[in-house]
Amino acid sequence: MARCMLFASGLPLKFxxxxxxxxxxxxxxxxxxxxxxxxxxxxxxxxxCPDMAGIVTxxxxxxxxxxxxxxxxxxxxxxxxxxxxxxxxxxxxVYIPKDMVVVTTQHIExxxxxxxxxxxxxxxxxxxxxxxxxxxxxxxxxxxxxxxxTPKKIKKQVKGKKxxxxxxxxxxxxxxxxxxxxxxxxxxQLAPTAASAAPAAxxxxxxxxxxxxxxxxxxxxxxxDPRNYRDAMRDAxxxxxxxxxxxxxxxxxxxxxxxxxxxxxxxxxxxxxWVFKTKTHxxxxxxxxxxxxxxxxxxxxxxxxxxxxxSAVLDLxxxxxxxxxAHVWEVPAxxxxxxxxxxxADKEEGLEIYLYIPDGMEISDKLLALLGVKHKxxxxxxxxxxxxxxxxxxxxxxxxxxxxxxxxxxxxxYTDGCLYYKRDAGGVTLVGAYVDDLLVTxxxxxxxxxxxxxxxxxxxxxxxxxxxxLGIGFEYDKDKGWLLEQRQVIxxxxxxxxxxxxxxxxxxxxxxxxxxxxxxxxxxxxAGSPQRPTVQTFQSLVGSLLWIARCTRPDxxxxxxxxxxxxxxxxxxxxxxxxxxxxxxxxxxDTKFAMHAPRGSMSEDTNCGGRVQRRRLRRRPRGxxxxxxxVLMVCGMVVGWICKKQSSVALSTMEAEFVAxxxxxxxxxxxxxxxxxxxxxxxxxxKLHVDNQAAxxxxxxxxxxxxxxxxxxxxxxxxxxxxNKGLNVSYCESKLMRADILTKTLPAPxxxxxxxxxxxxx
Length: 762
Known about the structure:
Elements: H1 2-9, H2 16-28, H3 41-46, E1 61-65, E2 77-85, E3 92-96, E4 101-105, E5 108-110, H4 116-147, H5 152-165, E6 171-172, H6 229-234, H7 238-254, E7 258-262, E8 269-270, E9 272-280, E10 286-295, H8 316-329, E11 334-337, E12 354-355, H9 365-371, E13 379-383, H10 393-407, E14 411-412, E15 419-424, E16 427-434, E17 437-442, H11 445-454, E18 461-465, E19 468-469, E20 472-477, E21 481-485, H12 487-496, H13 535-551, H14 557-563, H15 572-587, E22 592-595, E23 608-615, E24 627-634, E25 637-645, H16 653-677, E26 686-690, H17 693-700, H18 717-723, E27 727-731, H19 748-757, E28 760-761
Parallel strand pairs: 8-12, 23-26, 26-27
Antiparallel strand pairs: 1-2, 1-5, 2-3, 3-4, 4-6, 7-13, 9-10, 11-17, 11-18, 12-13, 14-15, 15-16, 16-17, 19-20, 20-21, 21-22, 22-28, 23-24, 24-25
Helix pairs in contact: 1-2, 12-15, 13-14, 13-15, 16-17
């Protein structure tokens, strides 16, 4: 097979090692009649069907992106030929005839993906350049063999110098690998080698004589979680998943979730599926293997299987306020988890829901005889309680949780319905609900312990001081406060979109994206892949970036805001920007968001403030609306930030700043209202920092200005708030303006300064 591949490609015999390696790669992933069900060797070993999408013809001509570095006028692409796949890093091994090197890169375009005209041009170029390149290789070999006639001691010295001079990162195909055991004058064969990754290089390559790598063999790989029951049973961790399934069935049956009945006639049955997840600690180590049975809610019909849907999701700003108060009260927040929360609520009244028998559920012969059926295919499950996957399951669970909390004396906040508080002579207890995960703190540890005791009716588990919540890692110190990070989320995202080996960048967005309003549209024809992105691939990446930006990374908020603007026509330039943001996150993966303030700034009388910045978009031909940015702080700790495009075109910088100040003040008043509702006294006036003197005068002035008559009257509430001494607006120098990071493209030095001001640390 390798011989045929080599001769068909037209490559010299020197590439026999690459041909053998690639042939082994293909055979290990191909169906084998010697294995059960003609499974491939990789599938037998790992239990997972291999993905064959990345396999291309050996020797396929392609174009390769080459980073020109400081050589601005050098071409950005080179003609190459694919000679293998790399298992150490994602990418293809590509031979570049012009430079006579083999590189490993993801940035290629295969001949099959080019149009007919480009295909003809590329084939012609290879045919035109090929013979000359092969001759140049042969001439270099002849010259090298002449040099090899020197004494052995001298040859070893020369070889040692070569190793020192050879740059780490290139497969030099023009020079053969030296052999200490071969006799002088004998022809040497090129040993098969594999390129390995350099930490920060875009394309990682290696000197071919540096390391001898044997022909590829089947090896163990890190597999993702199974996608369904069948994959789980064929997975290498099948025993772990079987135990997880057993635990889930025991929990559901002990909760009296369903009743096994004979399948009713003329009734619609819903399918179920298994969702498997490897739960990890904050440091990435395995905590447990979890299996969850869910209903295929997409099969439900409105009015027949469900009526109202809702899921309780705590606002992220509210969540940070809980940690602020925990730091003020010196009582660390605890994480509470309700196991199998959705199945504890009763099903919706007036609805009968039937399920097919789930995979892995065993039915005894005694039960079959009792129900008068011959096999379990004639049975169904009639739901008695709610179950994961049902469209109304979130609402039913929240209704149960609300009922129990109210019975315990808690009040629901009107500002954020997912926050509950209990205030009495003994102090205050706060509970934030994010579906079935709870954040709990109070004015004393005794109140927190008492809450978990009272919630025993729901089997609420106290997981201790918060260490991981919603994928966010937490570190707590009584003196240093809270540190939040999303390292595991970022690494998972980079791996999912093929950016694990991408080079890092110092800024998330550059000026090149400002005027890029036209360009090639992304295809909208399926899931796609990192090598061939589609609209769905782009949306998935942006969704991950949005979550990271909202939780712990205000430094990418503006870049993410920019990449999400064209929701109706995603372009290739947007995909490149999204990847650049991800590469920036790779370089700053250890960055943490700090929630800490000096003890002197914290008291029962909480202070609240905000900083405002805006930016005019003067150069964009399609839209000149400004961007409002603001940072919200409570007790000296950042609890939220906004980056929002204004709804109207500002006619002056004063107007743009005035609108931004109004938007940030509205967010600030929401925080003040929530704190007041739970009984926390807030110092008045609230503080607002603006870096525009004209806007400050307009806010504080009592006269009517002709320059502000046209501003929407709903935004002028800020003037009334300032007039009644409820808001203190002060000037802030632009170099100290924290909100600058949320409104504009910044150079790396300035970005580093602002990262410190918004409480980002490493």
